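Two proteins, back to back. First:
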Amino acid sequence: MDLVGTTAGRSGAETRPDRVLDVAGLQALVDRLLAQGYVVIGPTVQSGAIVNAPITRVDELPRGWGDVQEAGSYRLRQRDDDSFFGFAAAAQSAKPVFFPAEEVLWRGHRTEAGFAIDSGTGADGGVPYALLGVRSCDLSAIGIHDVVLTGRVHGDVAYATRRAAAFVVAVTCSDPSGTCFCASMGTGPRPTSGRGAPYDLALTELLDDGPHRFVVEVGGERGAELLDLIGAPPAPEDDVLAGDRVAEQAAGRMGRHLDTEGLTELLYAAADSAVWDDVAGRCLACGNCTAVCPTCFCTDVEDVTDLTGSLVGRTRVWDSCFDAGYSWIHGGTVRASTSSRYRQWATHKLGAWVDQFGMSGCVGCGRCVTWCPAAIDITEEVAAVRSEAERTDRSEGQS
């Protein structure tokens, strides 16, 4: 299925001139999307965190707010400027928009003639979404779900429908956090239409050497048409170069690094590594990492009936491979220990995913590190596995 219109971006075959918007122009962009029937979803400040929510005004964006993220720690901070997008990964990605945590698959009810089946109601009633401020790591995660959820023999129809109707405005990350490692994974900090999903527009925010403004890369015809409607002028060459510097500087300020050299083979060979037992001594198996991960897609199905037996429904809900019951089959649980469940998650995410889908399942957003109550860091655990393997190789070489 063709999920969105043809795009180019920085990595596309077709190059469209960049445009520029001021703050009023950004509001005009939002207004036009609303007028076209979209529900605009953007970052907002709620309950001490930056979360995605419906917006109608740019004043609802986290203007002047940044964040400080480390392993097991998240705090907002007041910036000394008026940046709208001067923060790293929000608490959640775009995943709940396209792939809701709970979704009705079908409902049924008794009739005089027997039983009637209703189609799934969905979580949104078919309303199209416009996503504003999608980070490059999350754009890559959408691209992964485009493959995983729609490329199978039986694709996820609800997901594909939402994606096809969506308008995506990506944004260059200027302030990576202490847990970010998208540069290691080749997924950021600048949106591209290569590894990531296609986008309609991509913004780079500029605050220095002039007024507050946004360089806008045009990713497709829908984006170009929208900019024409609001009268966005061509971007000066100096602004284009300034936007390039924002991305380059952000790439040099990653808080984490993950060595991906030979990673799939490394993890396959580490099935009996002592690292997994060490992690299990700290892991709570709470599933926080899978809940905030923008690419995890494990689900369960719940069937519910009313007390009269007249109504029945089937609902799909997010699940986690850290749940002991997730791998339950007749006779017992396949992965009964926390160590086996963490090993499965890490090995699948960084190794087996490549064999299944032709790409890594990790985009380097760092959310699993930030939101782990035990401050477990996947980059450190992989480094420990690699160090163990290197010690083993040296020992065998000396014997």
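And the second protein:
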Amino acid sequence: MDSGSWRIEVMELARRTAHRSWFYYLSEEQGPLEIAYRAWLLRRGTDCVLVDTGPPVEEAARRGLRDVVRLEAALCALGVDPAEISDVVLTHLHWDHAASADVFPHARFYVQRREIEFFRGLAYDHPATARFFSHRQMLSELLDSGRVESIEGEYALRNGLRLLQVGGHTPGSQLVAVQTGEGLAVITGDAVPLNRNYTDLIPNGILVNVVDAVAALKTVRALHPVAIYTGHDVESKLRLMP
């Protein structure tokens, strides 16, 4: 492996039986679907960057998740002290991706400006969007703490590590493009929740803008990744033809 490339380590934090129709926009009837909840650790030498924080254990239990693992335990299993994490990328601010942010009281967070504006404004305006958020006070305090980098569009976090705003699922949903030893990989967050969303170009059924959701899928394809890591597929990595 190229010493300048990143390694992506997947941490599965929970499972749930969900409804198929939630994830395939106007394409599936109701029916059960097994999904996973994850966070991703990016490593290059001693440098570590965390992508998403996964669901808090108590909130996960309240929402019916099973096989729940604390993020701190998952990091320790990889030999990483959570206190050593200095940079956390949040693909978006939904509860299952951001509500364990308080595990890292000294880290710097990277969030798209449009996501912050949505969280502070319309996210809680109606149950249709508010249901996907939790820990509002904690996240609001984090956003006011001076530890959040409000970014806009494309952002180079490190050499070989780029953040790309796409929207769709939420207004400020972002991708993480990672240069690995195999080539470019993309952590999609819920812009692409399941592998079939990518292969069949079906937007997520949970969204705020269907046009942006379709454009997000096309953006991922235009990057020509060798692999993608979707938000909730039980298969943690989808290898693609170069």
